[in-house]
Specification:
By secondary structure, this protein is mostly beta strands. 13% of the residues lie in helices and 38% in strands. The protein contains two helices and 29 strands. Strands 1-26-25-24-23 form a five-stranded mixed sheet, with no helix packed on it. A four-stranded antiparallel sheet has the order 2-29-28-27, with no helix packed on it. 31% of the residues are buried.
């Protein structure tokens, strides 16, 4: 009996040890399961927002439409409460519009005093619900607006030596304290730029970093390199001062998180540089060659009707002037339209790149939606004569042009939210 009782005690002890070992194993598995995502994130950085594949969409269902009229909506900056700051460079105006009530308030005024502007060019959302306002006549700094869109201070970003300017071509900003400027490299002795750098100014630390370089020369089958200086000139058989239609070049945009999208026209593809410094070189994107028709020609002619804004010195002061585009009919048209034209690239808060494909005048413009892998995840069309101006939280803002050429702002639900 003693031997039997001792054997039973050993069996109970063995079973107890097995149960304890099982519990330790399960606890270890749970801890590993919880720890792995943190370890992966620590090694690879924060997870980037992923946009799911989209069917072809149409931005037709208008949530809100403003009745405020603009000559040309050059830039918008959206607020979380639904208000929109609108820059109209042709009218030299900066206003805040409430699309729910159509109430309009003017931001500061035209002038040369503190907190004033002479030639507003663009506005960007910035850290702390503030806004950066770029002025044509201030090439070395930006005007910072507070959360109420009131002038706060001027931030000086460049020294003014040589080409050290903050807005020679394009600009952008992120919510991490960065202001971006495209700075061209001018070929010595030629007077033209063959490449550009994207420079980021950190407004908190004052640090300046060059993030990427690219070939910024114009692209067209009707252009060729000048044998003497390498600059682009009309192709053989065309007059030296011929109008060259449908010229394109690489375009870029920056998201609020600091993701840079550089879209190349030939071949059509996207380079993405994320805030952590990682780079994705997207594959060549599929494109169907579209022959230039009369609708495309009419669209190009309409683009030439609108003047652009520029500056010129009047005495010792820089003034903002309208520069009419030459009303010249091309001697020759290219066989195909390019994938996109100037200022066709935007990027939303989910790092989805929107590329406006070249439309005919009577066609609804279509945007390619490109995800973080550099591939097309969907397409979205806007009404004829409309264009996407920017993005808010779960919204897309569209500019609609009426028969008189006046522009109004609309708010739509975003297909990528």
């Amino acid at each position: 009996m003693m031997r039997l009782r001792a054997a039973n005690d050993r069996c109970k002890l063995d079973r107890r040890m097995v149960r304890q070992q099982y519990r330790r194993t399960m606890i270890l598995r749970v801890l590993v399961t919880l720890a792995v995502p943190s370890i992966v994130q620590a090694c690879t950085g924060p997870e980037r927002p992923r946009a799911t594949a989209l069917d072809r969409c149409r931005l037709e269902q208008v949530a809100q439409r403003s009745q405020v009229e603009f000559t040309e909506v050059t830039s918008i900056r959206t607020f979380d409460d639904g208000r929109v700051l609108v820059v109209d460079a042709l009218d030299r105006s900066v206003v805040v519009v409430d699309l729910d009530t159509d109430l309009v308030s003017r931001v500061s005024r035209i002038g040369r005093g503190p907190g004033e502007y002479t030639g507003p060019k663009a506005a960007f959302a910035f850290a702390g619900d503030s806004t950066l306002l770029v002025d044509f006549t201030d090439p070395y700094g930006v005007l910072m607006l507070d959360a109420r869109a009131l002038p706060a201070r001027r931030a000086v970003l460049a020294s003014g030596e040589g080409l050290d300017r903050v807005h020679t071509f394009r600009n952008a900003a992120d919510m991490r304290g960065g202001f971006y400027a495209q700075v061209p490299r001018v070929v010595p002795g030629s007077g033209f730029s063959d490449s550009s750098a994207l420079v980021r100014y950190d407004l908190w630390s004052g640090q300046r970093d060059t993030l990427m370089w690219w070939n910024s020369q114009p692209v067209s089958p009707l252009l060729q390199a000048d044998p003497g200086r390498g600059r682009p000139i009309p192709a053989a058989g065309l007059p030296q001062r011929a109008a060259v239609p449908f010229v394109t070049r690489s375009e870029w945009a920056v998201s609020s998180s600091g993701t840079i999208a550089l879209v190349h026209p030939d071949p059509y593809r996207v380079t993405l540089r994320f805030a952590d410094g990682s780079v994705v070189e997207g594959p060549e994107l599929p494109i169907t060659k579209v022959h230039v028709n009369e609708g495309h020609k009419a669209y190009w002619r309409r683009l030439q009707e609108r003047p652009s804004m520029g500056t010129q010195f009047r005495g010792s002061e820089m003034a903002v002037v309208r520069i009419p585009k030459p009303n010249q009919e091309p001697d020759q048209w290219p066989m195909h339209v390019p994938a996109f034209l100037e200022r066709a690239v935007l990027i939303d808060d989910r790092d989805v790149v929107w590329v406006r494909r070249t439309p005919a005048i009577d066609e609804p413009p279509v945007y390619d939606l490109i995800g973080t892998s550099g591939t097309i995840i969907g397409r979205c069309a806007v009404p004829v004569g409309a264009r996407v101006a920017g993005f808010g939280k779960g919204t897309v803002y569209v500019v609609r042009v009426d028969d008189d050429g006046l522009e109004r702002l609309e708010r739509h639900a975003s297909p990528t939210s």
